[in-house]
Protein: Retrovirus-related Pol polyprotein from transposon 297
Amino acid sequence: MCTLQIGISGRTLPFEFIVLPDCSHDIILGWNFLKASGALIDCGRFELTLDDVEVTSEEVVLKPLRLCVMKDCRLLAYSIRKIPVVNRCREDSGNVIVEGSKLLALKKEVFMPSMLVTLRRGKTEIWVVNGQSQEKVIPQGMCVAFAEPFCPDCIATISETSKVSTEISETKQSFEFLNMISPDLDANQK
Structure:
């Protein structure tokens, strides 16, 4: 696996690739480049073939950021807590969408919801859940989640909520119950 710098639309972007020497001539398939553009680089013919797909730098370059635990964290049985995490490769800031590590869920049975958090200089805190009856320890440096930049256009939001009127009819039982919890009653009346 190697990295190749390719210029597209005046921008030079890095792509991973592999050379397939078993063909009649070498063909390079760029994994993330191929995924984003349908590219085939044919060294024998000196050709680069692209599908009719528009290539954007976000699709091609951005890999999920690895979020690792900053210090050993103890998770009590049946607990939920925030733990500090850091991305050591880049000190980006901004909103990111976090997905928990499936490996962590399978091996340690520690889960985390997908969430939107703000990364500040590569650091943030994320929620983790231990649903087991025994304490778990997440060691410092362990990768617990992956983060991708938040794209507001990719999220569907509800701008207006319809107000549904809920009418509750009072029955004799509900009236008696309301009287039992009235703050005006003394201890004997309750």
